[in-house]
């Protein structure tokens, strides 16, 4: 292992393990949210460790954390599986988001750098022009906008709770609602506009409307099943 230079702060082993555990957690979360690992799939530690290029120690730490967040669960044979998030959980999560995210948007209005919002606006408009509902940029952009609001809402606890609850809705098997591409893009543009203008009341209203529409779309889709 390379010795630290004179101007570097040595990293102790526990700190290094925590860092690797966080890397493993984020990598596993990406696999779950993207659908690369499906509800009901068994967790195979050796294969996942090789896939992520990590040792099994930080991976196990990440799996334990995800089990605590109820994204993974143990079967009768004590093996870990990807847990199926229920519709009831999704609706409850959306209810919590409806309570918290408009407040975060109101607090973030006028605080987010115009350049960052402008870049988001350009990405939304490009997504609209291409009209590709299955384009993964749709999900990435949604996460980036809501993440930016949380970053600038100036309340770390509020941001943390929102991030945790949003994971539930992102894990929902109906997350790809194809008919919602254009409406979601317009809702995002409305939110961005209010944030750019620093209009707290409008930012809160547009965010609340966005979440209400997500809920309505899920219920409409379920009614057609």
UniProtKB/TrEMBL annotation:
Keyword Methyltransferase appears in the UniProt entry: no
Ranges for domain HTH gntR-type: 18-85
Pfam (any one): FCD
Molecular function terms, GO-annotated: DNA binding; DNA-binding transcription factor activity
Gene3D superfamilies (alphabetical): GntR ligand-binding domain-like, Winged helix-like DNA-binding domain superfamily/Winged helix DNA-binding domain
SUPFAM superfamilies in the record: GntR ligand-binding domain-like, Winged helix' DNA-binding domain
Name recorded for this polypeptide: DNA-binding GntR family transcriptional regulator
Organism: Cupriavidus gilardii J11
Source lineage: Bacteria, Pseudomonadati, Pseudomonadota, Betaproteobacteria, Burkholderiales
């Amino acid at each position: 292992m390379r010795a630290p230079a004179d101007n570097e702060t040595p990293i102790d082993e526990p700190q290094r393990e925590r860092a690797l555990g966080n890397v493993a957690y984020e990598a596993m979360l990406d696999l779950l949210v993207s659908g690369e690992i499906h509800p009901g799939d068994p967790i195979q530690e050796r294969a996942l460790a090789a896939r992520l290029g990590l040792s099994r120690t930080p991976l196990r730490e990440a799996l334990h954390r995800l089990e605590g967040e109820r994204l993974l669960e143990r079967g009768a044979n004590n093996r870990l599986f990807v847990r199926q998030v229920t519709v009831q959980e999704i609706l409850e999560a959306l209810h919590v988001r409806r309570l918290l995210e408009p407040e975060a948007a109101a607090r973030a209005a006028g605080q987010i750098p115009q350049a960052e919002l402008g870049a988001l606006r350009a990405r939304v408009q490009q997504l609209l022009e291409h009209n590709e509902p299955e384009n993964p940029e749709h999900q990435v952009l949604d996460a980036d906008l809501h993440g930016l609001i949380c970053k600038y809402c100036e309340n770390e606890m509020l941001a943390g709770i929102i991030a945790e609850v949003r994971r539930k809705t992102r894990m929902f098997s109906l997350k790809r609602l194809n008919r919602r591409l254009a409406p979601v893009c317009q809702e995002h543009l409305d939110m961005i506009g209010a944030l750019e203008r620093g209009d707290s009341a409008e930012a809160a209203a547009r965010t609340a409307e966005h979440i209400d529409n997500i809920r309505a779309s899920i219920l409409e889709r379920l009614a057609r099943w």
